[in-house]
Design goal:
Helix 1 crosses helix 2. This protein is mainly alpha-helical. It has a two-stranded antiparallel ribbon with strand order 1-2.
Length: 159
């Protein structure tokens, strides 16, 4: 069986394009501020990071992890994740708290479960999923073998 072609560059281009488009679309749909979206996303993804490896727990659109399953993220950890100046992050955190999208709980920040049952959030989850499916199809179309072992030294040298 011949080795799979090295498709890492085209996969990177597709992923970068999709990531920017997605950020832009969601920022426009949520007030037009990419940094606000980035800070909010940093909070909620950190809150539920420990749930990512489970295949069936809180997987469905309406199966939102309850507040009891959300782990607060410290503002220091959030800052390390986002790599933006702390004073800018602090302003956005304050605005998100003021809008009821984020709360300070137990020494950290949490995006409460109720936020994710809002119609615009459910619509956003559907849009993200549709974009993911589209991106996966594009990757397959250009020959990306998803889940393939890309540790071939010759392929790595060509990139």
């Amino acid at each position: 069986m011949p080795p799979s072609p090295d498709t890492r560059r085209v996969a990177n281009r597709i992923l970068a394009h999709e990531a920017l488009n997605l950020l832009s679309e969601f920022a426009h749909a949520n007030g037009g501020d990419v940094l606000a979206l980035l800070v909010f996303t940093g909070v909620w993804t950190s809150n539920t990071a420990h749930l990512r490896d489970s295949r069936d727990r809180y997987a469905g659109l309406y199966d939102v992890p309850p507040d009891s399953q959300r782990r607060p993220v410290s503002e220091e950890d959030l800052n390390r994740l986002l790599c933006i100046p702390r004073d800018i992050q602090d302003r956005y955190v304050a605005a998100l708290i003021g809008a009821g999208l984020v709360e300070r709980v137990g020494g950290g920040l949490v995006a409460p479960a109720a936020v994710f049952t809002r119609p615009e959030m459910l619509q956003g989850a559907n849009e993200i999923y549709a974009r993911l499916v589209e991106m996966m199809a594009r990757l397959r179309q250009v020959g990306v073998a998803l889940g393939a072992d890309e540790t071939d030294p010759a392929a790595a040298a060509q990139s």
